[in-house]
Amino acid sequence: MSIVYRNIHRPHPAITNAFAGFGVATVHEAQGRTGLLAPFMRPIYRGARIAGTAVTVSAAPCDNWMIHVAVEQCQAGDILVVAPTSHSDAGYFGELLGSSLLARGVRGLVIDAGVRDIRELEEIGFPVWSKAVSAQGTVKETLGSVNVPVVCAGALVHPGDVIVADDDGICVVPRQNAPTVLKQSADREAKEAKVRARLQAGELGLDIYGMREKLAQRGLKYRDELPPE
Asked: 160-219 pLDDT, tens per residue?
């Protein structure tokens, strides 16, 4: 059955917005090293860093009809997450759709397929993380669904989940866990700031992290000189 859910539960905007202050690596580590999308998903240009609420699209291969349907369901602060039902690297999305989403306050696109017009998308400031860049066009023939759970690049995404994306990749935070993961991310960043200061002061990670004893237990030996030849 093809269906569009108009009303989804979103986290409080203050929670979603706060995630933009943390990198994907921090969020991923903070929630127990879970939630990463596959590393083949790359930003079309460097420097973009966003967090927002997932509006999900299940689309047929080489068919972008449901993306047009999904635009109407997007609100300011959302991120569109598109998952084809089978492999496709066609260019589902370009500058015209990017302009439409920008007008609605959408913060970016995550798509397990291809995009095109990447120069124009960078010029208008609409970030995209995709599997491929392809000029190959799509059709508008097959129904899909909007705001249903999807698997995008190996990760399960529910509508209303928090998406965090930067140069390192993409991480999904389940909506119900967002407040807890946000606090854990802040705690982790505060801890890393202290470690960074010690490293910058010349201390070694070997000592800060207490690695020497474990290395010795595993059998690592030190010698002052190479053995004679």
From this structure: 999 999 999 999 999 999 999 999 999 999 999 999 999 999 999 999 999 999 999 999
Residue range 124-139, pLDDT digits in tens: 999 999 999 999 999 9
Report the C-alpha gap between 148 and 159 in whole angstroms. Answer: 6
SS (H, E, C) the chain: CCCECCCCCCCCHHHHHHHHHCCHHHHHHHCCCCCECCCCCEECCCCCCEEEEEEEEEECCCECHHHHHHHCCCCCCEEEEEEECCCCCCEEECHHHHHHHHHCCCCEEEEEEEECCHHHHHHHCCCEEEEEECCCCCECCCCCEECCCEEECCEEECCCCEEEEECCEEEEECHHHHHHHHHHHHHHHHHHHHHHHHHHCCCCHHHHCCCHHHHHHCCCCCCCCCCCC
Query: Distance between terminal CA atoms of the chain?
Result: 74
Identity of residue 211: M
Tell me the two tokens of residue 194: 């202290």
